[in-house]
Amino acid sequence: MQLTVSKHVAFFQRHLILLPNPYEEHDSERMALGFFCLLGLDLLNALDKISEEDRESWIEWIYNNYVLLYSKETKKSYAGFRGFATGSTPILNEQEPQLAATSFAISNLLLLGDNLSRIDKQAVEQFLSLCQLPGGHFKSTASTMCCDQDMRQLYLATTIATLLNISFPHTKLSLQYIQKCQNYEGGFSLTPYAEAHAGATFCALASLKLLVNSIPTQKQLGLDQTSVTKPYEFQDYIPDKKRLLLWLINRQQSSGGFNGRTNKDHDTCYSYWVQGSLQLLGASQFISQQDVKSFLLCQTQHKFGGFSKIPGEFPDVLHSSLGLYALAFNDKANFPEVEHAICLPTRRMPIKK
Q1: Are 119 and 80 spatial neighbours (Cβ–Cβ below 8 Å)?
Q2: Whole domain around residue 130: which residue ranges?
């Protein structure tokens, strides 16, 4: 079965204009929903379908959700984006910038061709510092009442720092936290001593990759006792790489798809999370890429466009865009080149100055 490009393009275009009823409970996450639609169109080389009027309007909407606040604790300003403020007078918690919304907002702006010049990078640096906890992980907002803190938030923070080319707070603490999250199965968990999860594993490996890339090269003593400069390798920070590889490879099921945890069913999005992890490790040759493609195109690709979570369900924008990204990993002829550690086509990555 072939990829039905025109139907997928129409699917994402519809969702950018009007969201169906099932998305009602995600109203406060419009920034994320918009990202999956824009990403899907870009993967299909169809962002030019967006009118200039819509592009400019959406950029303004994104910046309308940019929040600049003052911290009494540090006596400094901090900034980020919120997911979406419901109502004309948002409540205090809605006003707080969030790591997820900030990461999605920056990605949306890059997809829409914005130069990010309206973002106060120093204030975003301060926001990341306020979100980091003593253990090296992050909470989703700077609020003292925030309890949402795990590997996902750490990955969002590393993504923000990378896209804006700003400093990351206490890199060593975060590296140590990531290492603590590899469990006995080999995969990484959202928090130390929890169950290994494919999404958490991707977040851990991608965070390691981005953090290690930000560390200056180290000087090591060569075999001839002279000092040589050697770049850090992110895989050196993985406590048990062999067990990790075995765990990832065993996520592929007889259907060709992947599950996210031991003894769970396959799911379209894990074709992205698991393959992304293997791509980072340079180990994608250990799975059947043809079986992945068959699972996505023949089982979860919907006849009206988009991809569903599992065969037989209705499609949604998250699984649709991640399904396309999973295909893009191994199909450079029909898709743009994509990043492995950050969920964006390479052509959208900002040029570091």
Answers
A1: no
A2: 51-169
